[in-house]
Amino acid sequence: MTTQQRPDSSSTTDAATPKIKEALDARDALAAALSQAGVQLPAMDIRTPWVDDREGEARYALVHLGVCSAPVAHALATVIMNGIAR
To answer: Has this prediction a pTM greater than 0.90?
Structure first.
């Protein structure tokens, strides 16, 4: 039985497929926007649920936001609500 491993963010930057590059760009844009709003998530990463064996590339990649404390979650909610109120 074989298992497919998810690459960590350091290995994804070496051989970034288009889907992984898209997720990396999205993660970086979100981190920058949150930082400007005064919110920092402690662990943002890229996850690839599986690799397409035929093409050897990730079918898609996800921006994993990780876990955060209650104060950070409240700060994120406030930023979102302020954006909605515009």
So the answer is: no
